[in-house]
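Throughout our pipeline, every protein is held as a single compact record rather than as scattered files. Nothing more is needed to write down the fold, since each code stands for a local backbone conformation. For reference, a complete record is included directly beneath this paragraph.
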Amino acid sequence: MAHALRLGARGMGQVWPNPAVGCIIEKDGRILGRGATQAGGRPHAEVVALAQAGSDARGATAHVTLEPCAHFGHTPPCAAALIDAGIAHVSYAIDDPDPRVSGRGADMLRAAGVQVTSGVLANTALADHAGFLKRVTARLPFVTLKIASSLDGRIAMASGESQWITTPPARADVHGLRSSHDAVMVGSNTALADDPLLTVRGMGAVRQPVRVVVDGGLRFNADSQLGRSVDFAPVWLLHGPNAPRPARQAWADVGAKLLEAPMQNNYLDLRAGLSALAAQGITRILCEGGGGLAGGLLRAGLVDQIALYTAGLAIGGAGLPSIADLGLPKLADASRPRLIESRQIGPDLFSLWQF
């Protein structure tokens, strides 16, 4: 199962809206087939592993990181494929909460005489499938807030200059982080100040993340790096109901997708906006916006983890803060996420914090 989980994790950011599943077919301690959900979401991991195993799959055990699906979609159910292949035992990590599956896969297997074991390395699988699980159960994507800051928590000079606070090794690491997420999101202030590209570079041939701009009034111009590269990687705009018609048309003309969400106190309702992204199949979002968007997401309780890159320099109080005012009346109200990982990247430090 540990091997299957490692296989599946490679698909993070590449297989949405489907989960990044891994599967190992094994008999008598010998691996007969390995599979992971393929780019774009199909074929599923079980189908790939069964194809490798061929006729040797009869009487074997399938180790799968998520309960095999039981519904007909673009492809037949994986539970049926396992049964047809003569698999004798299916061991899976966690149940699939999708109402089209939700125990039906395991029931289908048992009804066909297949031995079923569940809960194997469940905690690891829950972490790996967190994006898919949250989209299905909460109708929201899993959000990673990425911050690159100075030692004193600043992301730019007072003038807005920010290139570059961290060094090339840390910036290269960010591209790996982007590739493991379905979408990269910034706010309109960051988009206007930096005119970013937000693509994955230096990682070989990967499925590019959807590039999302939270822009209630559609101030960001379609004649930008994002607008000129829609054919290379998708661009989606989250905007308010009063966004100007000419701006909507300009973005539509270059091929961007426009998603409308309500406004709240002159700002886009971030919970409604993220819900709209989840409805489009997005399971994991990397937020690379500035302090305003970071603060808004944290105030709304929408951040699942913070990926913090800290550079060894100080900018001072005049610099722009990494997180805008959270409106906390007292220290006891501050959240205390758990430190999951820390490591040195070149001269910079990386730490991962989960709520």
